[in-house]
Structures are given as C-alpha cells and as structure tokens.
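Schema walk-through. Below, the input block comes first and the output block second. Nothing else is stored per chain. Lengths vary across the set, and this one has 70 residues.
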Amino acid sequence: MTSGKVIRGTDLALNAGQSAPRLEDMSLEEVEGFLIKKTLARCDGNARRAAEELGLSRSAFYRRLEKYGL
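--- output ---
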C-alpha cells in the first residue's frame, strides 16, 4: 500500500488531528474492512486494481466486499 520500502502513517490513513479510528483500537475485521475501503477509494472504485494492490484474488476480494457490506 506504499510506493516505497517505508510505511508511513499516511499510507495507512493515519492523519494527526483527524478523528479517524485508531488502528490499535480496532478489531482485525474492522482493520481489514477499513483498508479495503481506503484501497478501493484510492483506486477510484476499480475493484480489479484494488484487489491486486491488496494481494487478493478477485473472488476473495469480492467475498470480503460482501462480508463488510462495501
């Protein structure tokens, strides 16, 4: 989810001063849904590209979209 070798807070949508949920306070399922939603938004709704960026097959990606109601 990052273009370099270092992951920064912005790569995980961790922006200081915003009321975004803290990853530390989220369950694994909530984190997964959050990251899928952010990746899909970053890919302008292109599910194929989002699945590729997340390292998921398209079928696995679509199962997760259904699971999280996205």
